[in-house]
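Appendix B. Raw example, untouched.
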Amino acid sequence: MTKEKVIDFICQKLEKSNLVDETYKYSVLERESYSSTNFGNMVALPHPINTQTDATFLSIMTLTKPIIWGEGYVQLIIMLNISKNENQDLKGMYNALLKLLDQQNIVNKLLECESYEEFEKTIQVISEK
């Protein structure tokens, strides 16, 4: 598994769901070529070089084993999909996301989840604290 294969996998799912077009993957890979989106703590936050989606949403993927991503290892990938029509301040979303992902114990709890439902419930419990 490589970061390119992970990006390709996520983008294929998004394209099959009609959330992005065939150019989306190339925009994400282009952005990644400038600087790694490895956030640290086993987390990568890839995103396209420019906004392209009709809605703002996150695409989340966990890996069974970490892979090399830039200068470190990654096991939790959260692709940021920001609407091309976005006119609201996303600072709150970014701050909440970074606050969660900056804590290794929280990332570890998320990586232990075995289903989307469990992941969602874990995020809810963590957010309420």
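End of appendix B.
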